[in-house]
Write a structure and sequence with these properties.
3 domains, Rossmann fold, six-stranded parallel sheet
């Protein structure tokens, strides 16, 4: 091994260390920004090193250099513009689009390598290591591409959020899976060439669509995490195809992290990943603002003034944000209310459910954007013991994740870990109506004697509460 090769491997190793440390730093909101920056620096170094290696080996022709530079520039500008312009409510669908781009790009690497080998006449002589990872790459990447686009469409409202039953969907998936096995087997044995690889791509795209359409909105946080794991795995396979160490390491890390997060998210919903992939759960957005049919018990309504006084006299308040907060873009209002309470000496914290919103960490991202103190953001295990000591639990737009029905068997949310808001001395729910959550059932919290409903859009309701608090204090 030459001195140049030694330096190259050392740089790649340093990049891998950056990826690992970056992921570690992302486990806390306090250090997540530094983790992102460190991981991005590692990837930038890996790309620069790869360009130098290609130039030294004579593979970086003028056309290749221009194409590579143009691709990096276009991608960087597109990413920066999307990141700055996207609304926080649209962040989940943007993440899904990024998953689609990652999976599709990984698949294209394998297809591009196969095309190059076919032109050189070496396709049939490819080792099994390359042909196997090529098939896996286009399969996983194709599923990720189409599945992520469908998920993004559901989140954006282009497609209905409810489960969409595909006629004979299981038989279609079975047929597509058999087609992948047959075409993949032919490719591995050196028969069919690019034609059978294209068949794998087409079948993979079909599997992604048929798999994702029946999955309802309630499962979207888990689906996004799962597709993210698919993206990482596809990237790792692409690394094996072209012999790129940085791709293998980065892809493996993303795939492993996504798989672990998917398991944690599924556990938070008390459902198996297999059951989520099977689909058919949740009702989507159609019932989000409708009345709760068959509601039992008495719903007690409160006014802005009464709720503001109750908050002003509290010594401990726990705020529980949900998707209604994101939909109303009310993160700044809820943080302003929390700060006003803190200035009055009230102990304020936020109870964050892992599947609140539309993607993993959705509520954390929203509140971080509004500069909520990281020390006040507490996950379900940390915050649940505190509800019994809270004077007021202020629920803003959260539904299924606060439903006490989860503690009883025999309903769609049975066994799902919930935030124990009903254990607080008093509960104030800011919500537009008594509409269902994604599970399609009534929230029993709304009829409990210690619960009062403040019917309002989250942004308007929180603004009014803040004004009422200031008026009472003055």
């Amino acid at each position: 091994m030459s001195g140049f090769d030694t330096v190259t491997h050392a740089v790649y190793l340093a990049c891998a260390v950056c990826f690992v440390l970056g992921l570690h730093l992302m486990t806390s909101p306090v250090t997540a920004r530094r983790g992102n920056q460190l991981s991005a620096a590692g990837m930038l170094a890996a790309i620069a090193t790869t360009v130098v290696v290609l130039a030294r080996d004579g593979q970086a022709t003028l056309l290749a250099a221009v194409t590579l530079t143009l691709g990096i520039a276009v991608g960087a500008v597109a990413g920066a513009v999307a990141a700055h312009r996207v609304k926080m409510t649209a962040m989940p669908q943007l993440v899904s689009v990024f998953n689609a781009v990652g999976g599709g790009a990984a698949a294209l690497i394998a297809v591009g390598d196969a095309v190059a080998q076919s032109h050189s006449g070496d396709l049939a002589a490819e080792p099994v290591r390359v042909t196997l990872t090529t098939v896996l790459d286009v399969l996983i990447g194709g599923v990720t591409l189409s599945g992520s686009l469908v998920a993004s469409g559901k989140l954006a409202g282009v497609l209905p959020g409810r489960p969409i039953a595909v006629p004979a969907g299981r038989w279609i998936n079975l047929a597509l899976a058999l087609a992948v096995v047959a075409a993949g087997g032919a490719y591995l044995t050196g028969n069919g060439g690019l034609a059978v690889l294209c068949l794998v791509v087409a079948a993979a795209l079909g599997i992604g669509v048929v798999m994702t359409l029946p999955i309802g909105g309630a499962d979207m946080p888990v689906v996004i995490s799962l597709l993210n794991a698919f993206t990482g795995t596809a990237v790792a396979m692409a690394g094996f195809v072209i012999g790129s160490t940085p791709l293998i390491i980065a892809g493996a890390l993303v795939g492993a992290a996504g798989a672990i997060l998917t398991k944690l998210m599924a556990d938070a919903m008390n459902r198996s990943i297999g059951a989520i992939i099977a689909g058919g759960f949740g009702t989507g957005d159609e019932n989000a603002g409708g009345p709760a049919a068959g509601a039992t018990g008495t719903v007690r309504q409160t006014t802005v003034d009464d709720a503001a006084i109750q908050l002003a006299y509290a010594s401990k308040v726990i705020i529980v944000p949900g998707y209604g907060l994101a939909a109303a873009q009310a993160q700044h209002e809820v943080v302003a209310l929390a700060q006003a309470l803190t200035e009055r000496g009230v102990d304020v914290s936020y109870g964050i459910h892992p599947v609140a919103g539309r993607m993993p960490g959705h509520m954390n991202v929203l509140l971080a954007e509004a500069n909520a103190p990281y020390t006040e953001l507490k996950d379900i295990d940390e915050i649940n013991p505190e509800f019994a000591r809270a004077d007021v639990a202020l629920v803003v737009g959260a539904n299924d994740v606060t439903n006490p029905a989860a503690r009883r068997p025999g309903n769609p949310v049975s066994g799902m870990p919930i935030l124990d808001v009903d254990h607080a001395k008093s509960v104030i729910v800011v919500k537009r109506s008594l509409g269902h959550g994604y599970a399609g059932i009534d929230n029993e919290l709304y009829t409990q004697p210690n619960t009062a409903m403040l019917f309002s859009d989250a942004k308007a309701g929180l603004t009014a509460l803040l004004a009422g608090l200031h008026a009472y204090v003055s």
